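Ligand: adenosine monophosphate. Inputs:
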Amino acid sequence: MSSFSFPSYPTIESTYTSLPDSFFQYTKPTPVSSPKVLFWNDELAYDFHFSEWAKDKDALAQFFSGSTLREGLNPFAQAYAGHQFGHFTMLGDGRAILIGEILNRSGERFDFQWKGSGRTRYSRNGDGRATVSAMAREYIMSEATFGLQIPTTRSLAVVTTGEPVLREEIQTGAVLTRVAKSHIRVGTFEYAYQALPLNELEVLFRYTAERHAPDVLKQNNPALNFLEFVMKRQVDLVTNWMRVGFIHGVMNTDNMSISGETIDYGPCAFMNGFSAKRVFSSIDVNGRYAYTNQVGIAQWNLGCLANSLLPLIDPNKEKAIELAKAKMSELETWFQESYIRMLGEKIGIPHLTEKDLPLLQNLYQWMQDSEADFTNTFLVLEGVHSPKDSIYNDVRWKDWMKTWQEEKTKKGIRDEDAIALMQKTNPSLIPRNHLVESALTNASQGLTSIAEQLITRSKSPYQRDIGYDYTTEVPMGGDHNYQTFCGT
Ligand code: AMP
Ligand code: MG
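Predicted complex:
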């Protein structure tokens, strides 16, 4: 392990580079001409002992754009592969470089990574750069996801480079500093399984297990228990996405983190009007990563992980397949249980069972038919939002409310308990797409006030007395033409 430090700066370590060199390549970021800090996350900076740095804005901009490297620091790009829209591809950090690992104030280890910091050996035809609007989007969305108490990578800084980046139109470049429990993905295991000798897959497994799930190493079959660990994290993660109407947009296996954090905020968005098949990403023409498909896709991706772990589960391939299949067959049940529990909590009913599902199906079908706003509908139910929208005068809605009340009475659930549960489960605030877009337009001009306002509000999304009318948040005409773009 290499490490370096200087007065009042955190120690930056690198345990990942103890892996064989097929897993990474030492790579220096490409310096930029006039770096300027656009966003700086004070709260996160404090947790990692970076507060002192904020006093010197120039040094901050230099370092977090990757333009001045401190001595002793050996950044690197990581190798990985992935199934993109179902097709296996060799990838790797094409525009990201890992700075190293830093312990937070609680002693937990996190990766720090520059994103948009120049070409690497894995860049293929890409320029290694990122636009300010894409990096500002990741900054806003990841911090909002954190506010929603959903596992996620976080963002420490966005530094504009002062250099043009050529996309459909010319934009300013920017470097995001991403903070993650690690950047090890399902695709990292696929890479080791497909391209490296078995002993290197074993080394990756041991390193990852020690870092994220050390207890599995004490079990009879560590690899099988590790698979279970990752499965449970994904069940929790995707259930949370479904709870708040989040659509990741590009759930390729290289964008699925082993630690169970939401990672890679490319074309993601939160839906307004409910539609089970909602898709925002411009390239997802078949709706592979549509809202309700996310559960099935998570299962598919975990199947790819299971496949890559086979030689570690058992040296006998048939036996390994049998064990992995048995474990994978539990996944459906875990998802089902977690999903049903979450649905119940959204309507204030704990311990919902499968036989209660028609109640929820009727509600979701009504939301779909009336394109009701997903977030606000649950606030209407809770009684904290009086809608102007005529759909809430609909007979179907009124009948459903009546059945819901009867159901609560039958189950002996007191109204105050139902409300308390709904308050914890349903956000009153999500980063609405039109607000995100205006924050990004603003940020592209070097202005941050709209984004800062959005970020500040996103810190307490379960608060109820926010002092303004929720309905003003909902755009007229829902999300019909809203599109998001990948890798910009
Ligand atoms: P993403 O869609 O951001 O998950 O990226 C998928 C793959 O494409 C990763 O290997 C990225 O590193 C790579 N990539 C995306 N954009 C660029 C770029 N501008 N230059 C080089 N590589 C890129
Ligand atoms: Mg990615």
